[in-house]
Backbone:
């Protein structure tokens, strides 16, 4: 049985997903990105191990290289990204290894 086409996009090099309306960009370590016509919520359901760190982002825990002390900023491969207030609050309470569903 063949795997669905979207599963080929889920590689160890996938760092995060970002949303634009009803579309989602897949961002990879080498800087490339792919566009898919599904919402971020749909991808969150398919990728439960990814962290929802705000309205527009799902992040691969494998590529998180650090957090600020208050968890309002995280780092994907040493590049900063903004974390929503709600997600930062959850991270402060439960720790950075928790699965966030904001």
Residues:
């Amino acid at each position: 049985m063949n795997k669905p086409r979207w599963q080929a996009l889920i590689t160890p090099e996938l760092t995060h997903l970002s949303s634009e309306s009803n579309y989602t960009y897949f961002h990879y370590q080498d800087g490339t990105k792919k566009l898919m016509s599904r919402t971020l919520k749909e991808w969150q359901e398919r990728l439960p191990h990814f962290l929802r760190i705000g309205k527009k982002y799902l992040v691969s825990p494998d590529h998180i290289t650090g957090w600020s002390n208050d968890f309002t900023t995280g780092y994907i491969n040493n590049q900063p990204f903004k974390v929503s207030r709600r997600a930062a609050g959850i991270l402060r309470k439960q720790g950075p290894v928790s699965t966030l569903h904001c």
